């Protein structure tokens, strides 16, 4: 997995991860590695910066880890998934995290106390998750062609479509929060 630090960070930093169980941070101006972060026990499949660029979240099989993005020091550990984590995303204010995975759930986390605040049960493995710009809604996409929108406070599903012919690999809200865009396809076809 790869992620760029937010545009306002200077110099821009790239985070990369993979099979070696580490996360590496790179200075994009010099192409030099800043440091490596160790702590995962399995392949690191997801990595994302907080909106302010100060924190980094990464996930392996079932564990999400939080890091100080400037030092690489641990900043927390989130557990609860019973299957592999497929995607992680910060809310726009950086106070919440949404994760999804093979255990057919989307989990919402409060980062101030590192606790799970809500589990959104689904009927199939979930591949993608996104917060609305105001953080009041969460979108998800699963392997059974379903894109859904959930009320983040109540956990109630407020909208769903099953128009895709395969896995919904990506969901994103428009900047004004009025539209949900989803992308996917059938197995073996471009996502």
Q: What characteristics describe this protein?
A:
191 residues, mainly beta, 4-stranded antiparallel sheet, 18 strands, 52% strand, globular
Structural summary, described in words:
The chain has strands at 2-4, 13-17, 23-27, 32-37, 46-49, 55-59, 63-68, 74-79, 85-90, 96-101, 105-110, 115-121, 126-131, 137-142, 147-151, 157-161, 167-173, 180-185. Strands 1-2-3-4 form a 4-stranded antiparallel β-sheet, with no helix packed on it. The chain has a 4-stranded antiparallel β-sheet with strand order 5-6-7-8, with no helix packed on it. A hairpin with a 5-residue loop joins strand 7 and strand 8. The protein is globular, with a radius of gyration of 16 Å. The chain has 191 residues and is mainly beta.
Low-pLDDT regions: none
Largest sheet: 4 strands, antiparallel
Number of alpha- plus pi-helical segments: 0
Distance between the termini: 16 Å
Mean pLDDT across all residues, rounded?
A: 93
Briefly note the structural class of the backbone.
mainly beta
Helix and strand element order: EEEEEEEEEEEEEEEEEE
- Range of helix content: under 10%
Number of strands: 18
Strand order of the largest sheet: 1-2-3-4
Shape assignment: globular
Task: Report the radius of gyration as a whole number of Å.
Answer: 16 Å
Percent range for β-strand residues: over 45%
Q: What oligomeric state do these chains adopt?
A: single chain
């Amino acid at each position: 997995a790869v992620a760029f630090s937010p545009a306002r960070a200077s110099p821009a930093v790239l985070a990369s991860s993979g099979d070696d169980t580490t996360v590496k941070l790179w200075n994009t101006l010099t192409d030099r590695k800043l440091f490596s972060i160790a702590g995962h026990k399995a392949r690191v499949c997801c990595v994302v910066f907080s909106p302010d660029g100060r924190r980094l979240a990464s996930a392996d099989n079932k564990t999400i880890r939080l890091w100080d993005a400037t030092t690489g020091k641990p900043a927390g550990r989130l557990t609860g998934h019973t299957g592999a984590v497929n995607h992680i995303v910060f809310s726009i204010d950086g106070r919440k995290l949404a994760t999804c995975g093979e255990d057919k759930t989307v989990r919402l986390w409060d980062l101030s106390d590192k606790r799970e605040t809500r589990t959104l049960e689904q009927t199939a493995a979930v591949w993608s998750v996104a917060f609305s710009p105001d953080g009041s809604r969460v979108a998800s996409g699963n392997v059974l062609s379903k894109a859904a929108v959930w009320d983040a406070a109540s956990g109630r599903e407020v909208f769903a479509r099953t128009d895709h012919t395969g896995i919904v690999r990506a969901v994103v809200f428009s900047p004004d929060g009025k539209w949900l865009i989803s992308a996917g396809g059938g197995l073996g076809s471009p996502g």
